[in-house]
Amino acid sequence: MANVLITGASRGIGMAAALTLARAGHKVQATMRNPSGSPELSKIASQESLPIIISEMDVDSDVSVDVRISTILRENQHIDVLINNAGIEERGTMEELEMDRFRAVMETNYFGPVRCIKAVLPHMRERRNGLIINIASVAGKISCSPLGPYSASKFALEAISESLAQEVKPFNIRVAIVEPGIIDTAMSRGIADHFRETAYPTSERFSNLFRAALENPSSTSYVSEKILEIIQSKDWKLRHPAGPDAEPFLQWRLSMSDEEWVDWAAADDETWYKKVEQDFGLKANPKKVTAGTS
Questions:
Q1: For position 132, which CATH number holds?
Q2: Beta strand pairing status for 52-56 and 81-84?
Q3: Residue 267 located in a structural domain
Q4: For the chain, N or C: smaller number of CB within 10 Å?
Q5: Does the residue 78 lie in any domain?
Q6: In this structure, is residue 170 part of a structural domain?
């Protein structure tokens, strides 16, 4: 059984992964920014007597990451698996989103994993053994407005993961990228429910797409089971789509040229919604849904 370190384990995919892995017998170090503000994982772990240790770590902080990982290594001798899951969602158009929000999403979603990887890598390299799992997204391969800021951070994570895999394979260290589709998490619900005033039409349309997808929600178990599969398989496969819509979304993007993709995103509402329904069966147009149910 492996010693596993997970970041961002307070809820959503991180908490689901911590529980799935612990129930499978792995020893889990579940880290989060504010353990006292997120008691659910601790409660479940206690009720089920699961091998989960919860501790504070802020992936935005060099000091916090170094102190926590050094402590874990000192107390547990080794970390077999690092799961970089901590992430934040940010959306908005290039013109309208504040610069500090662009920086914040990159700090957590890209530099956070880089910090954690740099902290564990010397240890894994010395042992010539280890697994680094980076939770990216289909948005790490597909960029749609208004998720450009989030996609940029996930594109960057995909790129550094691919490069890292080349560097560490000679040391018997595996790297895996998990690419969830639209999963039923607070983050996805936030995209579905939130629409801010904007001069651009893409924000409202994308919220409606998420809302339609979440009418038949995909559980976080799709991702947590994929993580467990990666750990137990010993497979060197790099990319792992997760969830029933992940591979279809990726193939949808590949089916279009860059120009066709841009033209679809820039199209009028009727054309945009029609293609979503035609290709995915998602009736995301709120006007048509309302008309059909009245």
A1: 3.40.50.720
A2: unpaired
A3: no
A4: C
A5: yes
A6: yes
**Tokens 């700090």 label which residue?**
107
Other beta carbons within 10 Å of 287 = 11
Q: What are the helix (H) ranges across 214-245?
A: 221-233
Check 150, 200, 222, 273 and give the catalytic one: 150
Residue with tokens 């407005």: 145
Q: Do 32 and 54 meet the contact criterion of CB atoms below 8 Å apart?
A: yes
Burial class (CB in 10 A: 0-12, 13-18, 19+), 191: buried
Any idea what DSSP says for residue 138? G
What CA–CA distance (Å, rounded) separates 203 from 146? Answer: 5
What is the pTM (predicted TM-score) of this model?
0.93
Give residue-wise pLDDT tens across range 214-272. 888 888 999 999 999 999 998 999 999 999 999 999 999 999 999 999 999 999 999 99
Q: How far apart are CA 96 and CA 106, in angstroms?
A: 17
Number of helices and strands in the chain (H, E): 13, 7
Domain that holds residue 200: 3-207+219-254
- How many C-beta atoms surround the C-beta of residue 106 within 10 A? 18
How many domains is the chain partitioned into structurally?
Answer: 1
Can the peptide bond before residue 244 be classed as cis, meaning omega within 30 degrees of 0? Answer: no
273 is catalytic: no
Residue 266 resides in a domain: no
